[in-house]
Design brief:
The chain is an alpha/beta fold. The protein is built from 4 helices and 6 strands; from the N terminus they run αββαβββαβα.
């Protein structure tokens, strides 16, 4: 019995390392506020937070969900209409824990897209509060 306890103490870290628990979704640091929705939650971020993320070393997919096209926030990766998001999943990362940042003109369409992605099991969804309107009001430029 005296030999088992030290053996268990020695083995515990090894057993924990072999755990099959899934890793936490990639997060973009301490930004935004969590918004609860049916099936999970997404994070709402400000345009200043987005600008800081773009200047840092965070990796994320930036998606314009607005229709019709009215411009892009610089460094936008792709455009997917908000009402076609679930039909365009092949354009999104296969890893549902990969960070995806959504925006539209005012944030109404991107909110709908964020809620849809959460319902489909995406775990690191971010929505830009105020969208392109807030981006321009904060003094940032759009690409036309």
């Amino acid at each position: 019995m005296n030999r088992i306890i030290p053996l268990l103490i020695t083995m515990a870290p090894l057993l924990a390392a072999c755990s099959t628990a899934s890793p936490e979704p990639a997060r973009l640091g301490e930004v935004g506020r969590r918004i609860e929705t049916l099936g999970g939650s997404y994070t709402e971020i400000t345009v200043d937070e987005l600008s800081r993320l773009q200047q840092g070393d965070s990796e994320f997919l930036l998606v314009n969900t607005h229709i019709p096209f009215e411009g892009d926030i610089p460094h936008t990766d792709i455009s997917i209409p908000y009402d076609e998001i679930d039909q365009q999943l092949a354009q999104l990362p296969a890893d549902k824990d990969a960070p995806i940042v959504l925006y539209c003109r005012s944030d109404r369409m991107s909110t709908i897209a964020a809620e849809r992605l959460v319902s489909l099991g995406y775990n690191a969804v971010y929505n830009v509060d105020g969208g392109m309107v807030a981006w321009e009001q904060a003094g940032y430029r759009l690409e036309r």
